[in-house]
Design goal:
21 helices; 6% strand; single chain; mainly alpha
C-alpha cells in the first residue's frame, strides 16, 4: 500500500514540476535551503531575500538530513521524491496496527482512506514542505500511544521539535496524553520539553536569525484589544473553520471522535484558528497534513478498544469511503486526471526554451512559477522581490517572467510587465513567446524600475 501511494504521490508532484506548475514559493525556497546545506553553509534562500537565512523564517533544522541525497542528485525532483517517500511510509504503522486490531479488511480500508486523504494530497500537491518529516513521525508516535507503548511514543515524538517551531506544541500534547494514560513523570517531562522547544524556537532562535530580529509570524498588533467574547467568536468564525474540523474526522467515518487520541489535533487547530491569516483556516495548502495520521490513529484506537458490531463498523467505513471519494474530486488528487497535468502546452514549451537560454550560475529575477525551475542552478529571486529590495548594484543579469502568472497573490505582474516587448532601462529584450518574456541586462546599464 505504501509503495502504491508512493507511485501516486510521485506521479502527481513530478508531473506538476515537469509542466511548470510548481513555484518558487515554496519548492524553489526549499531547493535553495537544501542546496545550502549540501554546500556546508547556513540555509540561505535568495527567493526570501539577499543572504536570507531561512532559520529566521521557520525552525526546520531537520532538513539538513536531505543534504547528502541532494549532493548526489542536485535537483528539485529530489525534494519531491523524498517528500513522497516520507508521506508514503506513514501508511505502514497505521495499517499494521489496524490489521492487529480488526483484521486485513479493516487495515485495507485504513490504508486506502488515509493514503488518499485530502490533507496528505494537499501537501503533495503544493510543492515541498518540511512538515513531510512530521507526517511519519506523528503517525508512528500516535500509533504507539494508542497501543500504550509509551517509550516508543516518546522517542518518535522528540524529533518533531526539529521539524517546525509549532510542532513542539504537538509534542506537548503527546506528553499530556502520556501523563494522563501512562507514566506521569515521563509524560510531564515530554510536555515540558515540547513547550520549551517551541518557546526556544519562537523567542530565541527565529528572532536571532530573522533580519528584523523577531518571530516573523506574530499576529499583527491592533489599536484596540478585543474582549474575550469577541476573541472567542473570532476563534470559531468564519464557518470554514468548522468545515475544516468536519473534514478532519469525516474521512474516518467519524470513528476518530470516539478516541481521546483525537485531542492531539488541538494545538495545531488552535494556532491556525487563532491566526488572522485566512490561509490557515481552510483545507488548502499543507497545514492539515500532520492532522491526518492523528485522526486515523484515533479511528483505529476506537476500534481496537471498543466493541463495534460488524454492521456498525461497516457503516462507519462506508461513510468514510464516501467522504474520501467525494474529496478526491474536490481536493488535489483529481489533478492526476486533469489535462494540464499531462498536456505540455505551447506556453510550457516556450517557458522551457527560454529557461534553457539562461546559463548555470547566473543571477535571475523570475516570476513565481518559473523560479522553481531555476532554483537548483542559478541565483534566483522573485521579480517582485527584486523590484522592492535589490539595490541597483545588485540587479540580476537576467529577468524572466510569465505575464499570466498569478500564483503569488502578493506579486501580481503589473501592467508594465504585461507588454509584449517591455522597454526597461538597462535591459534588452532577448525573446518574448507565448506570454513568457526573457530580458538580459545591458553591460554597464542601470537597474530598471519595474513599477
Amino acid at each position: 500500500m505504501a509503495a502504491g501511494f508512493l507511485a501516486v504521490y510521485l506521479t502527481l508532484s513530478t508531473r506538476r514540476h515537469a509542466v511548470n506548475l510548481t513555484t518558487g514559493y515554496d519548492l524553489g525556497i526549499f531547493t535553495q535551503i537544501i542546496q545550502s546545506y549540501a554546500g556546508l553553509t547556513a540555509p540561505y534562500s535568495s527567493l526570501k531575500g539577499p543572504e536570507y537565512n531561512t532559520l529566521g523564517d521557520h525552525f526546520h533544522p531537520i532538513l539538513v538530513l536531505l543534504a547528502p541525497v541532494y549532493k548526489v542528485f542536485p535537483s528539485p525532483y529530489t525534494l519531491l521524491v523524498c517528500q513522497g517517500l516520507l508521506v508514503a511510509l506513514s501508511v505502514i504503522p497505521l495499517m499494521e496496527w489496524a490489521a492487529r486490531a480488526r483484521g486485513a479488511r479493516f487495515s485495507l480500508w485504513v490504508g486506502v482512506s488515509y493514503g488518499a486523504s485530502w490533507g496528505l494530497a494537499a501537501l503533495i500537491f503544493f510543492d515541498f514542505h518540511e512538515v513531510a518529516f512530521a507526517v511519519p513521525l506523528v503517525a508512528a508516535s500516535v500509533c504507539m500511544l494508542g497501543q500504550e507503548r509509551w517509550r516508543a511514543a516518546v522517542l518518535w515524538a522528540l524529533p518533531l521539535t526539529l521539524v517546525k517551531e509549532d510542532l513542539g506544541l504537538t509534542v506537548a500534547a503527546i506528553g499530556a496524553y502520556v501523563a494522563w494514560k501512562g507514566p506521569r513523570r515521563t509524560g510531564v517531562a515530554l510536555a515540558v520539553f515540547g513547550l520549551a522547544a517551541t518557546a526556544f524556537a519562537m523567542l530565541v532562535a527565529l528572532p536571532y536569525f530573522n533580519p528584523v530580529g523577531q518571530f516573523a509570524y506574530w499576529p499583527p498588533r491592533t489599536g484596540e484589544e478585543a474582549g474575550l467574547l469577541a476573541q472567542a467568536a473570532g476563534f470559531l468564525w468564519p464557518p470554514v473553520k468548522w468545515l475544516t474540523v468536519l473534514l478532519i474526522v469525516a474521512p474516518t467515518g467519524f470513528l476518530a471522535v470516539r478516541s481521546p487520541l483525537l485531542l492531539i489535533v488541538l494545538p495545531t487547530l488552535a494556532w491556525r484558528f487563532a491566526s488572522a491569516n485566512p490561509f490557515y483556516w481552510g483545507t488548502g495548502f499543507h497545514y492539515s497534513a500532520v492532522l491526518m495520521p492523528i485522526a486515523f490513529a484515533a479511528a483505529v484506537h476506537a476500534v481496537a478498544t471498543g466493541r463495534f458490531p460488524v454492521r456498525r463498523l461497516r457503516a462507519a467505513c462506508a461513510v468514510g469511503a464516501a467522504v474520501t471519494a467525494v474529496t478526491f474530486f474536490t481536493h488535489p488528487l483529481h489533478e492526476l486526471v486533469a489535462p494540464r497535468t499531462w498536456v505540455v502546452s505551447a506556453q510550457v514549451r516556450a517557458g522551457d526554451a527560454l529557461l534553457a537560454k539562461i546559463p548555470d550560475g547566473a543571477s535571475v529575477a523570475s516570476s513565481n512559477r518559473l523560479a522553481a525551475q531555476l532554483a537548483n542552478r542559478t541565483t534566483v529571486t522573485e521579480v517582485c522581490l527584486y523590484a522592492r529590495a535589490f539595490p541597483p548594484a545588485e540587479a540580476p543579469e537576467w529577468v524572466i517572467y510569465d505575464t499570466a502568472d498569478r500564483s503569488d497573490p502578493e506579486c501580481a505582474v503589473g501592467a508594465a510587465l504585461e507588454a509584449p516587448a517591455p522597454k526597461l532601462d538597462g535591459y534588452r529584450l532577448v525573446e518574448s513567446r507565448d506570454g513568457i518574456v526573457l530580458l538580459r541586462r545591458v553591460p554597464g546599464g542601470s537597474a530598471p524600475s519595474l513599477w
